[in-house]
Amino acid sequence: MGENLKIVTDATCTFCGCVCDDMVLTVDLDHNRIIKSENACILGKAWFKEHAIEERPFAIVKGREASTEEGVEEAAQILANARFPVIYGLSDTTCEAQRVAVAIGDMIGGTVDTTTSVCHGPSGIAFQGVGESTASLGEIKNRADMVVFWGGNPAEAHPRLFTRYAVTPKGMYIPNGKKDRTVVLVDVRRTLSTPVADIFLQVKPRSDFEVLWALRALVKGRKVDTSVEQRTGISLAVLEDLVARMKSCNYGALLFGMGLTMNRGRHFNSGALLALATDLNEFTHWVAKPVRGHGNVTGADNVVSWQTGFPFGVNFSRGYPRFNPGEFTTVDLLSRGDVDAALIIASDPASNFPKAAIEHLKRIPVINLDPKLTHTGQLARVAFTTSTYGINVAGTVYRMDDVPITLRPAFDSPYPSDEQILTAIRNRVRQLLGGNRPGAGTPLATTVS
Amino acid sequence: MPDKMMLIGGRSNKQGTSLCAGKLGAEYVQLSSTVEMNVNDMARLGLKNDSKVRLRSAGGEVVVRCKGREAKDLPPGLLFIAYGPLSSELMASDTAGSGMPISKNVEVEVEPVAEAAAS
User: Fold this and answer.
1) Which positions ≥6 away from A113 have C-beta within 8 Å?
2) The model scores a pTM over 0.90
3) CA of B49, closest CA in chain A: separation in Å?
């Protein structure tokens, strides 16, 4: 430990979507690292501990060490010359950087997509069809006397969701914390989250939709056959008991994870849960919120939405934004071999995507921005080392309940931020193209026969 | 004839903490190449903790190590693997027009692998 210590209060952890902003960090300024992170969960402690300054090149261009400026020039040339590029990632960076990435996508007539498309993208699709009965986590903490976690394992993925917001904390109308709440967990297996639940529904794999639809029917007073147990693993009596509790609570919250979205049924599953929340509002107050993974994936949805009108999978090739999941989402663009360049910000699709998509990433020029070396960084033609948001970089992120939080960085990094690099790339691309890509925004020629 | 089971990819505490250290680090690589299996299924297939097993889906195939879970925690026929490059190998690229490849409840064939023949 060095002698030059600094305490940062009210710092923000950006590991997961809880974005806990009550961290007290002890920073060893002599060694540029955080040596203590009070209030952090096990994941937050690892996040702060492992983001010291590493000795890495500022950029790697075509396998050679390079300066940031050389990387920017190569990246700008790639993007200015690409005919159908994609910009992807963006869930682990600031809103300020996300905004610049959208501007680049607009300028080059490319596609802007975020990790939402392989996270709660299906829920985003469902919102458009069903709507969202929403709430802040503070509201859930202060009011919810019944909480249903569906298709997730917060104890391991969002540990403080239980302790800070939704299970144990005392709230304005929940004076005794967990004693005043009924906690329900729905999952296909027992996890570290299961002991928290008063009621655990172990559903059969691929039967979430059927359970949700049966609950909807019961809420509406329809008859459900006892054979529902054979299909879902949950007896009719258990479902009826659950519905009685749901209809008689004061304030209920459905918090759902990727057990619904990454499963067969995708947006139909999320839509069924959102529709259940709507149905329950005939009787008492219910809200439904997706539990979000990355620290600023919610910010990515917000920024892309306010800039383009759509949350992810947005294409600018006609000079105006078009949204079409399946066509303009990155797994599809790569797996079909559609795109001819990729700008990947703070994400690792070369590790997380299906094989066909990764194979195409290997065939095209890839630009990658990341604080750490990843599989994507290894295959990138241009790989930038960046500073870490929240630890070295100030800015804004959105908590999973769409509440914006200001970051308080702990110490400086020699590496530039995503926003700085993206701004430099945007400026150089603008020089090369002379503004937006020629043709973008021009009405398509009409053929008269 | 290989057994057919259902594979869930997901997060875990250790997957999360080792992710912070780096995806190319030994701990993350080890964690993301270990599949959790019901102990009764393992016994039936003649597998022990750390045995190698081949998983084959419509998307691809991988060889991973086994780790037993009690039947009350992980039902028969269900497998769990922490997210990582190997779980991605088993995802098919078809998103059914949604943008989302399926990574939970993926049907896989499970086949023990003799150590000498492991690839």
Assistant:
1) A86, A87, A88, A312, A313, A314, A328, A329, A330, A333, B99
2) yes
3) 19
